[in-house]
Amino acid sequence: MPAHTHDEVDWAARLPAMLRGDALDAETFAGVASRLTSELPDTATVVDVGCGTGGMSAALAAELGRRGGGTLILVDATEVLLEQALESATKAAAGAPVRVSTVVADIAGGLPSDVVPPADLIWASAVVHHLPDQQAGVAALAATLGDGGVLALAEGPRQSQCLPWELGIGEPGLERRLLAARDEWFCELRAGMAGVVAMPYGWNVALRRAGLVDVTSFSYLFDHPAPASAAVLAAALDQLAWISRAGAERVGEADQETVHRLTDPADPAFLGNREDVFLFATGTVYWGRSR
Q1: Measured distance CA(280)–CA(160) in Å, rounded
Q2: CB 81: neighbour CB atoms within 10 A?
Q3: 20 to 30 Å CA-CA from 118: which of 48, 255, 260, 284?
Q4: Is 51 helix (H, G, I), strand (E, B) or coil?
């Protein structure tokens, strides 16, 4: 079926940065996957919606393999990301009876029932908030669950930090201003979506309104303290570039110049030369069960 995204993001261009993030956060993904799959039935069917480059796909595949096998279906609207996710998940499940397949789909219209069977677990990370009607998206995913199946949404703003408050160049608090500008950009993006519907309540409420029961949540950390490894420095540069592009027109020229200096390897202020860079982020999973 034809598929598209509902935002302005060139996800294919972000593939290298996403892969670096997947590698850095593999341990956290493994912990989340273990918790989500701990009570699944044998040979479970798991669907990873908005799988991206497959960081969580690999963790889910490994857990299914550890549990004796199952089926993992990867869903995304960007084919180049799906190809990478398939490679990552297949590698993680090597030697185990885990069937991995891909589906190109725009989940705004729900998951195609001819290729996605009733699921024991649906994992959807940072994807539903890109849909014009988020509640309808949650309801469509919930409708794809089998009896007693679980829908797990990793949603809500992911609070990320990588920079000290004062950098020695520019005004203190640069990262906070960039994140605020990024949030403004996203609000404007959502407001401009065709058919946008407000959802003035939290994700746990959205799950209950979709008919799920035993709704609860848990949080997790991505914690890479200073001094940063080369991988953390690269990920911090990716993050700074991402949030600065998203809010480029919403911060002043002085902040734009500071970002340019921090991301220029030829500049003495280059972020990659610092010893005080870190990566700290929190995420929350909201999950509920079908009746």
Answers
A1: 6
A2: 23
A3: 284
A4: coil
The alpha-helical segments, DSSP class H, found in 198-270 are 203-209, 230-246, 253-262
Pairing of strands 213-224, 119-125: unpaired
Residue tagged 């469509």 (tokens): 140
**Which amino acid would we find at residue 3?**
A
Q: β-strands 119-125, 145-154: how paired?
A: parallel
Q: What is the DSSP letter of 190?
A: H
Assign 213 to helix, strand or coil. Answer: strand
Euclidean distance between CA atoms 7 and 240, whole angstroms: 20
For residue 278, is it left (φ>0), alpha (ψ between -120 and 50) or beta?
beta
User: How many residues in total does the chain contain?
Assistant: 291
**Whole-prediction pTM:** 0.93
Three-state DSSP state, 114: coil
pLDDT 10s digit of each residue in the chain, 291 long?
A: 334 455 556 878 889 999 999 999 999 999 999 999 999 999 999 999 999 999 999 999 999 999 999 999 999 999 999 999 999 999 999 999 999 999 999 888 789 999 999 999 999 999 999 999 999 999 999 999 999 999 999 997 677 899 999 999 999 999 999 999 999 999 999 999 999 999 999 999 999 999 999 999 999 999 999 999 999 999 999 999 988 987 778 999 999 999 999 999 999 999 999 999 999 999 999 999 999
- Listed residue (221, 220, 222, 218) closest to 286, CA to CA: 218
Report which of 115, 134, 163 is spatially closest to residue 272, judged by C-alpha positions: 163
